[in-house]
Amino acid sequence: MNQFASPPNQESISWRTWLALIALGISAFAIVTTELAPIGLLSPLATEFGQTEGQAGLIVTAYAWIAALTALLSAIFLGRVPRKPLLVGLMLVLTVSCAIAAFSAQFSMLLGARMIGALAHGAFWAMIGSIGAQLVPARQVGLATSIIFGGVSVASVLGVPLVNLLAQLDGWRTAFMVIAALSLVATIAIAWSVPRLSASTSIGLDALTSVLKNRTFQGIYLTTACAITAHFAAFTFIEPLLSSALRIRVNLISTLLLVFGIAGIVGNLISGKLIDRHLKRLVLISLALMTASVLAIGCLPVGSSAFIVGVLLLGWGAGVAIVFVGFQTWILRLAGSSAMPASAIYVAIFNAAIGAGALLGGIVLSMTSLSGLMVIVGSAMAASLIPVILIKAPTS
User: Fold this and answer.
1) 196 and 215, same structural domain?
2) What residue intervals traverse the membrane (predicted)?
3) CATH code for the domain in which residue 157 is found
4) Which of 201, 218, 238 is the last residue of a domain?
5) What CA–CA distance (Å, rounded) separates 235 from 373?
6) Cβ distance 84 to 128 under 8 Å?
7) Count of CB atoms situated within 10 Å of the CB of 394
8) Both 152 and 285 in a single domain?
9) Which of 23, 42, 50, 242 is the most exposed place for a label (fewest CB within 10 A)?
């Protein structure tokens, strides 16, 4: 029996389904904002708790690694749990995590609150893609995935800057409380709009092993690990690259970072229109665009035009957003009844790549310049094109 509940109308998506997809997108926004927000709050957090910024960075690094492990464990232990109550429960856990973080009196309490949130994060991402596939006809899985993952792009352009602004206006505790409130709103929206959905029938270590033996999955996972690690190795240091290496004026840096985020939203819109019909071609073009943009940024001389930098950031931001959606859609289209374990492995690799990217980027940067880092990262992105070229295009 197929794990996916058939959408009630195969010809069109009902208004309540649209609301469910939007609610899941809001949840994605809240979760990604929760994960990334501390990056811009490390200095006030370090000052508040008497830590170095490196020590404060544990709340980002540990979060990513725990989320990766949880994604795998959720495929083994949560596969038979009904989807709707599980989603509601996970969002409530995230809400409580952010609320505890906001009232933390010691750094250990803040770190513990973050780890609780990471548990919900990993389990949420392990199943969210497959839930999108359950809500819509097979031919519209790419569109559904784009809507849900649109929360990721919006979080990157609006979530983190908004959190930082709240911290500047009323302190970092207010920022965490606002995220907690948003998570609670998303919880209520999911409880109201998402229908009852069947649980997976393919779970456990055997299911994970079966997925990992599939050559196509192996190629997608390899490309994901390479491309996402490379992306975060570079993106973690984008601000110092712009300010120190390229010497962009301070008042233009926030604008350029906004350009990157807006490009991600545009990339999501493009993927929503084209990915269901041209998945492999779109992923290849997007990876090539990312590669060319990062390599070009690495080769720019000091004092380069902010306009040229902005154009390259547009290519990079749009490309990576499409790649995010593209690989998730590819896995769901290929997985069928194994969507839960296949998606769990993807999420684990994705989150592990976030932590690995920042770590490897710092190591490479200790041996070369910021521009040199971009060239090395661009080369790694170019290598990630090879598995995609060799993988057979999925059928709709």
Assistant:
1) no
2) 18-42, 62-79, 86-109, 115-136, 143-163, 175-194, 219-238, 250-270, 282-303, 309-332, 344-365, 371-391
3) 1.20.1250.20
4) 201
5) 10
6) no
7) 15
8) no
9) 50
Measured distance CA(318)–CA(56) in Å, rounded = 31
Q: What's the alpha-carbon Rg for the chain, to the nearest Å?
A: 20
pTM higher than 0.85: no
Which DSSP category does 69 fall into? H
Count of beta carbons in the 10 Å neighbourhood of residue 385: 18
Domain enclosing residue 1, as ranges: 1-201
b/e sequence 140-168, b meaning 16+ C-beta within 10 Å: bbbbbbbbbbbbbbbbbbbbbebbbebbe
pLDDT score for 201: 53
- What single letter denotes the amino acid at residue 102? A
Residues 129 and 253 in one domain: no
Q: Could you tell me if 141 and 283 lie in one domain? A: no
In this structure, are residues 380 and 230 in contact, taking their beta carbons and an 8 Å threshold? yes
Q: For 100-143, write each residue's pLDDT tens digit.
A: 999 999 999 999 999 999 999 988 877 776 787 778 777 777 77
Instruction: Give the list of residues 6+ apart from residue 227 with CB closer than 8 angstroms, or none.
Output: 287, 290, 323, 381, 384
Query: End-to-end distance of the chain based on CA atoms, in angstroms?
Result: 19
Residue 162 vs residues 56, 166, 360: alpha-carbon distances, Å: 20, 6, 28
The DSSP line for 307-325 is HHHHHHHHHHHHHHHHHHH
Burial string for 64-85 (b: 16+ CB within 10 Å, else e) reads bbbbbebbbebbbebbebebbe
Provide the CA 174 distance to its chain's centre, in angstroms.
24
What residue has token string 């393919």? 202
What residues in the chain have per-residue pLDDT under 70?
Answer: 1-13, 39-40, 42-43, 52-55, 57, 79, 129, 153, 156-157, 160-161, 164, 198-204, 337, 394-396
Check whether residue 167 and residue 215 sit in a common domain. no
Q: Give per-residue pLDDT as tens, 56-111.
A: 767 877 888 898 888 888 877 776 778 889 999 999 999 999 999 999 999 999 99
